[in-house]
Known about the structure:
It contains 3 helices and 4 strands.
Amino acid sequence: xxxxxxxxxLKPDANVEDYLNQARELVAETRKEKGCITYGLxxxxxxxxxxxxxxxxxxxxxxxxxxxxxxxxxxxxxxRELRESTEINIYKEVE
Length: 95
C-alpha cells in the first residue's frame, strides 16, 4: 500500500472556496479510480489556506495511473495556480 500526503499553502489572494470546489471535483473523480483506497480533502483548523490531500493507493502503479488521468490533467493545473507552495510526500509501509 502507498500513502500520499499532499500539503498545499494557498496564495494570500487565492479564493479558498474556489480552490475547495475544484479540489472536491478532483476527489469525486479520483474515488472512482481502480486502485484508490481512500482520497480525502482536509483543511487546517487554524489556517484555512492550508489544504491537504490524504491518499491511499493499492500500489505505486495505481498512483502513477492516477497522475495520468484526464481529470488530474484537467483540474490540477488550476489548483496549482492558486497555491503558494506544495509539499508532496509518498510513503510505503515498513514491515
